[in-house]
């Protein structure tokens, strides 16, 4: 069943060829005890390794079952070793971190035997060699003779047809040697045993057949077999395909990790650092994004959609557009070196779009579903003439030629408060008095530090002091002077009166009173109003009603070609419409603010406004500004930038920790070289070896990932508390289940990839070389 034909084995060292085996011809019987005798270096081990399929011959042939092995693939050799061959070595070659039972079982694992069957057979094998009482010990807790018995039990567990023993008693005392030898002799009763020894006494005492080797040549064979075709058929070797399940690899790796708890723990920690970094960044970004979204839908949702009469959009870079001055090419770079100053036309860089807020549009706006908005407020450019009495008894005039007091328009000291009291009061606290309700009631807006600028104080006619009480302002009155009192006609031109006292004391003046003081609250997303005096839309409407019939308006209506304020005809800069709006003869608004009820409602309003533009030319289109979006998109892009930078940093740590795991795995491969050799000798395929290491890195990756996620969850708790104390935003570190799972998978993947190269190196190790390493 096993025949060696002219087997040669050469080792090439440098340019010298060394013949370890030089033409070996032996044929073995199915059932005999062969001793191969020879001096050290005569090639005994080499011969045994070639017979066992652990090493490859250089030339000649090894015939198994009448079949040449020249065309054997790795897989064929693997199954040959696993099912037909049992190896016993001089140095026992047990795997030190496994128990005795596991050492024996491992050969069965490799051939895919189920666990119950495995245990039963391993115990039986250990019973047969007389070690049943020691099965839970580690190999380093046994004597030499006991270790060799374990090795024999392991070699026999698959019931191989051939047992190969390489000086099995070489390291044992003579008494133990005798016991082991009689055990092997027993075994040889029903199989082929080929034993290598340099001890002629042992050979002659136990073996049926002695083959003497000198310098790689057979010099004596005491009982040669002359081929006899008749008995060949029943001498066939059974060769089965072997395979180890991945689960088995995982279990065995898990055991290995457990035996090296300290190292496994450190590896896991190293791997988790990167994961913790990435998890924290992801959580932070998730939290911040949720915060911004919350901000948008809660607070920023209240911010108006603004439509102003004039929209400026910068569409060109510096000096661009159709400027007759410097061209783009001239000023292509920032911070030029030449000592030249360029002229450029700012207006050429700006596109001005005029929103036509005519009746048609206002009517269209009336059609907007009223449940979508809190209020629609319109700004008018009516100029009001307001007088205040100073602390010195003199008078001061406060001009309001426009009424947008929001931070997004230009500001004046006295302004119209957007017509959305609920929204304003959600952003502002009333510190004293009440929020105005009537047309003649005013509100004082102070900043978050309770300050009012000197400029405002002077304009209000208040003497400058270091500080004031709320009552210094509550109840303070002003007078609005109507056109008929304010203007005096002179040759068709209307000139403002100069005597302020007369105006103030005139009975036509309308008294306004500060009834409340408000300040932006802590929760507000931004300051909607500038500081100063605010009045209600009601006042504008009240005044427009009065002024529409005033003398100056009537006069302007009657002579539409002449500007009644200057007596000159209208030029392009000042138009009839503008003058009429200023003096109160035209109620068309110059701006519209729509206050949506919610974030979703805002989207619907936008869609409604967009629908107005359908079929209209560029010039007729209405362009609106979404203030909230401007604010939140700035924040969002900031968050994105921060996230990318942090993620890059965390990514680097992830890569570093992966490389570390790769290195640790490589060290483990080097450390376990011997074990790899042993595994190969008992039939492990290359794939089984790489599986074991891959399973190990996978386990470490999973553990790192899970550990990293746990640490992140733990760190998130105090981090959230600290951040809440610092910036009053709660739950900014949020680890979602998706992200957690994703990161665990990522960790497992990365470590697996990092371990691929070391595990390949392990799989490709030459089993003979691996066995020789100590
Ligand atoms: P034995 O087991 O009879 O003591 P070996 O079979 O181990 O002898 O070795 C036979 C000869 O082959 C020895 O001279 C040894 O030095 C040589 N040899 C064995 N393995 C190698 C190798 N990997 N590279 C080079 N020479 C080797
Ligand atoms: Mg040897």
Commentary on this structure:
- With 774 residues, the chain is α+β, with helices and mostly antiparallel strands.
- The chain folds into 3 domains: 2-242, Rossmann fold (3-Layer(aba) Sandwich), CATH 3.40.50.300; 257-296 and 634-772, no CATH class; 381-588, no CATH class.
- Helix content is 43%, strand content 19%.
- The chain has 23 helices and 26 strands.
- The strands form 6 sheets. Strands 15, 16, 17, 18, 19, 20, 23 and 24 form an 8-stranded mixed sheet that branches. The protein has a 6-stranded mixed sheet with strand order 6-7-8-3-9-10, with helices on both faces.
- Helix 5 packs parallel to helix 6 (174-187), helix 9 packs across helix 21 and helix 19 (627-671) runs parallel beside helix 22 (737-763).
- The longest helix is centred in the last third of the chain and has 45 residues, at 627-671.
- Magnesium ion binds next to helix 1.
